[in-house]
Amino acid sequence: MKLFSKLLRDIKQSIVQFIALALVVAVGAFFYAGLNSYSNKHRTYSEAYFKEHNLSDLNVYYSQISKDDVAGLSEVKGIHKIEGRYTFDATQVLENYKASLKIHSLPVNNEINTPTMIEGSIPSKKGEILLDSHYAKEHHYRVGDEINIRTDDKNLKFTISGLCENVEYLKKNPTQDHKTHGVAYIAEETIPEIRDGFYYNEIMIDAQEGYDIDQLGKSIEGQSKHLPYLDQTSKERTYGYSQIKQTIYNNSMMSKVIPLVLFLISAIILFLTMSRTIDSERNQVGIMKALGVKNRNIMLHYMGYPVLVGIVGSIIGCIMAALVFIPLVTASSARSYTLPDITFSLSWYSLIPSIIFSSAFGLLSCYLSGRTILKERAAQAMRPKPPKKMKKLLIERVPGIWSRISYSYKLILRNIFLNKQKALASSIGVVVSTVLLITALGTQSSLIKIANQIEDVYTYDLRVDYKLGTSSDTLQLPSGIKNSYFTSTFPVEFIKGGEKENATLVVTEKENNLIHFFDKNDNRLSLENNGVLVPQSYADNYHIAEGDIIQIKFTAPELKNKSVDMKVLNISTQYTNPSFYITPAYLKSFNIDYSPTSLLVEANSSTDLVSVRNFFEQDHHVDTIADKNDLKKSAQYMLKQNSFIFIMFIICAVVLSFGAIYTISSINIYERNRELATLKVLGYQKHKINRLIFFENIILTTFAVIVALPISGYIYTMIVKALSSTHQQIPDKLNIFIMLVSVILAFLLTILSNLLLRRKVTKINMIESLKSIE
């Protein structure tokens, strides 16, 4: 009990150091508890959600297929259950915009892709519709309300029978835009009212457990030779499923790597601290041995310090994770995915690994540092350790240099090289902290750059999308237009080897100067008539180089899955909405007609822009009108989704840096007690002694920063690769300004630590410090 009281007294005497160490541990516990809880809940919930609502393993598309044909396909080996449905696109005209709806018929005995009912009931007769609850919320629809939609020049009226969410649309699009994109379901009885006759155009397949989906797809295609077969999509290639799987994988990796790095930093600092603490109290160890205290009890007494640090730090980290991390990721998940009734809570079991891991290195350092002292006799342990012998430095042997160095700098150099190992170990904490600062600030800067690039790439004022079948020859343009260019967009598949990736191919005039293209060095690129511009994101993922031949398959039904080989003209940096770009002349070389579907418009002035927009809004050929603000939504969405993680990361990096630098500086002062006491006895002024310590810490920080800079580049590149995908490119260049800010912040934290440690220099006991074996 007395030893425990002594432990509490020791903590009280160095409370700032204890708090600094606890904060270092808290940072690791914060990320471990938060990321681990979030990752585990996301994985377990999504797996249960997919299983409960039986997400289809394979969707196969036809121009039309009858019930009997669907029944015939059910005999194909590997199919557990098969269901047919009719799918079509519709639009809803609202006040200032149009919204698109993807509408499916619901099989009578629906067992695949079953909806999650939020309110109301499943449509059971003609004229009823089951509406996506998020879309309904955006437009203030309730059960029982009427909704008017338009499809293929038909106006249809439905009564909302219920609100739902569906497992196949847990993520609709990159920005989860529920305002202009929705999903709905109708009863099978409604199909004849939409199309002449009753037939399906899509089948959903639930495969037998463990059966190879690719083989099943080939079998279905082979059995569909007599049918108007179009295409098929496996579960793994659907947008929502692939996105959430990638998110779960990334979160799982982050929950292991980030806390491990942070715990290793805290382990190094704890190791150094406990080694210093036991060395500084060798006199007390000798007294305890003389009083008959067992070696085991002395060792357990000192082991209590890192255990208390681990417990306090882990509790603080977990509480902060529960109060800050979990609410933020809950809000982020709600914006990113539609997962009904999912709730995130902190798993308090994550407290145990945090305590064990953070305490383990402290216990190890206590054992390694204490076993040597405990082997000594009590009388020997009560005497201070003899000072180390100092050999001549290399610089001392160079004639004319050493004599010109001031006495203060000689002391600094001697101290650093006297404790080379500890100086190197001390710098590790600062190195890693600086790397975290640069990486966190750099990644945040990259996300901001993505949002800002839109201004450089897209210089048009309006994008006008025309209705299907509209001929560009019949269109009229208003006055007040400075520039205008037609474009056409094709849904395609990029194919390489056995891999397929959904993509977008944009066809526009070679002279179009309302869309700018840049290479990875920010040099302007131009379209040519003999090749395709490939997005950098696809080039990175599939190792595409200039001059390569790539395969593109047109997936629009009217093009009947036509595949073509295109020559890579250039690689284009596209941070948002990456697309393949070609000219109409290059498209026609593949015997595909160019039928423009959109018009990019640049107005003469802001005043003209209003009148130009009014003209297009009244044009009955126009389907939708969008401006650059719509393009910004995707980039701003990503920035908003990821900002909180990196802001927390930056704050934690600052806390970690302060804890590391303060603890290391404190150790440095202890190890120089005798030297500093000697200087005080010789009449050295207090501010000169403080300046001596300050310059030494600045030298160590400078060394750490120099080492951290190249490491930061490597770590930053790894994080960029982890965040990037074929549908999203992240800038992979560190900003000089960001690196400068991080370096300045590291030095400011060093200065702050030195200011807080000034009182330790003042309290040095000159008589006790100068006692030694000579």
Task: Describe the 3D structure.
With 774 residues, this protein is of the alpha+beta class. Helices cover 51% and strands 20% of the residues. The chain has 22 helices and 22 strands. Strands 12, 13, 14, 17, 18, 19, 20, 21 and 22 form a nine-stranded mixed β-sheet that branches. Strands 3, 4, 5, 6, 7, 8 and 9 form a seven-stranded mixed β-sheet that branches. Strands 2-10-1-11 form a four-stranded antiparallel β-sheet, with helices on one face. Strand 3 and strand 4 form a beta hairpin.
Key terms:
774 residues, alpha+beta, nine-stranded mixed beta sheet
Outline:
The chain has 774 residues and is an alpha+beta fold. It contains 22 helices and 22 strands.
Provide the helix percentage. Answer: 40-55%
Please state roughly what percent of the residues sit in beta strands, choosing from under 5%, 5-15%, 15-25%, 25-35%, 35-45% or over 45%: 15-25%
What gross morphology would you assign?
A: elongated
What is the overall number of helices? 22
Low-confidence stretches: none
Instruction: Please give the number of β-strands.
Output: 22
Structural class: alpha+beta
Q: Give the averaged pLDDT, no decimals.
A: 81
State the end-to-end distance: 37 Å
Largest sheet: 9 strands, mixed
Whole-number radius of gyration? 34 Å
Organism: Paenibacillus profundus
Subcellular location: Cell membrane
Domain ABC3 transporter permease C-terminal: 257-375, 647-765
Keywords: Cell membrane, Membrane, Transmembrane, Transmembrane helix
